[in-house]
Amino acid sequence: MKIHIIGGGNLGVAIAKGLSKFSQGNQITITRRNTSSILYLEQLGVIVSADNKYQIQDADIIILTIKPYQVDTVLAEILPVISNKVIASAVSGLSIENLQNKIGASNSAIRIMPNIASQFGASATCIAFHEKDKEKAQNVVALFQDLGTAPIIDEKLMDAATVLAASGTAFALRYIRASMQAGIEIGFDWQTALAISAQTVKGAAEMIMEEQIHPEQLIDRVTTPQGCTIAGLNEMEMHGFSSSLIRGIKTSLKQIKG
Ligand SMILES: NC(=O)c1ccc[n+]([C@@H]2O[C@H](COP(=O)([O-])OP(=O)(O)OC[C@H]3O[C@@H](n4cnc5c(N)ncnc54)[C@H](OP(=O)(O)O)[C@@H]3O)[C@@H](O)[C@H]2O)c1
Asked: Which residue from 67, 113, 126, 167 has its CB within 8 A of the most atoms of ligand 1, so it is best to mutate?
């Protein structure tokens, strides 16, 4: 497929890199106004351009990874030269209905919420679309399945998906940082503490995804009666470990809804 990514910033670049590595056989184009910082992507076989219209007529999927206030400018540029296109938008807060109204009935609006782990084939990309575009959306779903998991969700959960999957990356990183800081306090240099903390989180996540079971079942396997793990867990919970995370996620959602 020919994938045309408009907005070569944090997310657009992560998707381009991920596609070049984990989704073979596609032709990827990425655009931004100032291309100097992303020209290196050409070494990965990605076409880099400052022209949003560059070969856009050939694109099977157009991915928007621009800020909300940049959408109208970009659409004004590309709409006169496209029709019958699938436009997958990662733009936060832009509803399918609003996008569909902007792009006209001849194009299909799909909403996606990837995260920057797309670069490593490890994104959780929630996808929503209207029933009329079900078939056209399948290519988008398949593409993002190559970059991790790609659950199809009801659009009304898109804000929640933004918090859980996109902001969630920062929440998980903050856990790793805290674990690293504790690791330093109990005797490791920061590099070793970081490597252990990150790999431990990766291992825990892989076990859950592989075995598809509730985390508490795996926790049971790690917690010996009267052992050090349950003592540490209970101490953390007494200081609000789970509840502070839950409260943080709910606060993020409140913020997004305005
Ligand atoms: N970052 C994430 O983890 C994440 C996750 C999910 C969703 N999102 C959403 O994805 C969108 C992009 O986020 P981001 O963090 O990647 O932002 P970003 O780093 O600021 O990237 C936006 C890019 O768009 C380019 N751009 C601006 N105007 C343009 C135009 N007229 N034509 C072509 N390119 C243009 C900018 O480059 P130039 O100024 O050089 O043109 C910039 O590189 C946002 O709506 C965000 O909410 C982000």
From this structure: 67
- CA distances from residue 143 to 19, 66, 85, 251 in whole angstroms, order as listed: 8, 19, 16, 32
The per-residue pLDDT of the chain, averaged, comes to 97
Delimit the domains of the chain by residue range. 2-153, 160-257
Q: Which helix (H) or strand (E) holds 12?
A: helix 10-22
- Give CA–CA dist 69/12, Å, rounded: 16
Tell me what percent of the residues of the chain surpass a pLDDT of 90. Answer: 97
Average confidence (pLDDT) over 22-34? 95
101-109: average pLDDT? 97
CATH 1.10.3730.10 fits 160-257, yes or no: yes
Tokens of 108: 């299909």
CATH no., domain 2-153: 3.40.50.720
- The strand pairing partners of 6, in sequence order, are 31, 64
Ligand 1 pocket, residues with Cβ under 6 angstroms: 6-12, 31-34, 52, 65-68, 70, 73-74, 90-92, 113-116, 166
